[in-house]
């Protein structure tokens, strides 16, 4: 079946460091790709999305590009802040249901 | 402001009890989902529904059932709660299927003792 793999956490970085969280998905069909973020004590909320190849989604300084040739959707941010500490989920939408990665917990140290 | 509301943030139930988790969305979304979230396992799909009175099994339906009598409400039922059902339960809804964002409730942390 369809699946998604994202890098294991936790990831600990200092403030202003560069962030990459890797995500790869199985290539059945042509899914839309999403990143969700979960702040402590809250439900998930959409961070960004891309719906076709080479699309770049962006929000709050985060970016991810839909790479069909490598079936990847890596999340990046040039300079992280303490307030970015959260759990991040990669989530392809395969038309019948959304598949979530296991989540990557991010800790940002001041 | 769009909203998915789960009836409880925290619940404590005894083994063997019948447990109802309620979810209501105010966005007129067709699709609704129940996930459980456990450390190291991410979100796992329990059941989903594409329309009133319709339901589909997800990846881990055993020990659960669902009910969708109205479009805005999707209930998760634990027929006989067990300690291995202690978890965070998340409800979500989407409009249609293609390219659509999921909206989540705040979650219900259920403890079965």
Keywords:
heterodimer; A: 110 residues; mainly beta; 5-stranded mixed beta sheet; 47% strand; globular; B: 113 residues; 7-stranded mixed beta sheet
Largest sheet of chain A: 5 strands, mixed
How many strand segments of chain A? Answer: 11
Helical amount among residues of chain A, as a percent range?
Answer: under 10%
Low-pLDDT windows of residues of chain A: none
Query: Helix count of chain B, per DSSP?
Result: 0
Query: Which bin fits the share of residues in helices of chain B?
Result: under 10%
Shape field of chain A: globular
Please, what is the oligomeric state? heterodimer
Biggest interface between chains: A-B, 21 and 23 residues
Mean pLDDT of chain B: 93
Following the backbone from N to C, one meets helices and strands of chain A in this order, namely EEEEEEEEEEE
What percent strand of chain B?
over 45%
Unreliable runs of chain B: none
Backbone structural class of chain B = mainly beta
Integer average pLDDT of chain A: 92
Molecular shape of chain B: globular
The largest sheet of chain B is: 7 strands, mixed
Radius of gyration of chain A: 13 Å
């Amino acid at each position: 079946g369809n699946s998604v793999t994202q890098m294991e956490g936790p990831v600990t970085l200092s403030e202003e460091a560069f962030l990459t969280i890797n995500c790869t998905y199985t290539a059945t069909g042509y899914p839309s790709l999403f990143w969700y973020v979960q702040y402590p004590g809250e439900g998930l909320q959409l961070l960004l999305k891309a719906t076709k190849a080479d699309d770049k989604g962006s929000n709050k300084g985060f970016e991810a590009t839909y790479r069909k040739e490598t079936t990847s959707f890596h999340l990046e941010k040039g300079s992280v802040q303490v307030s970015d500490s959260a759990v991040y989920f990669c989530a392809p939408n395969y038309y019948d249901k959304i598949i979530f990665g296991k989540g990557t917990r991010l800790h940002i140290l001041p | 402001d769009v909203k998915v509301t789960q009836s409880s943030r925290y619940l404590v139930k005894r083994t063997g009890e019948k447990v109802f988790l309620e979810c209501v969305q105010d966005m007129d979304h067709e699709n609704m989902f129940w996930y459980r979230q456990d450390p190291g396992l991410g979100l796992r799909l329990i059941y989903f529904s594409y329309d009133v009175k319709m339901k589909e099994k997800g990846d881990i339906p055993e020990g659960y059932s669902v009910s969708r009598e109205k479009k805005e409400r999707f209930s998760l039922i634990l027929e006989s709660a067990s300690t291995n059902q202690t978890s965070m339960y998340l409800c979500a809804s989407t409009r249609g299927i293609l390219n659509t964002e999921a909206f989540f409730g705040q979650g219900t942390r259920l403890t079965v003792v």
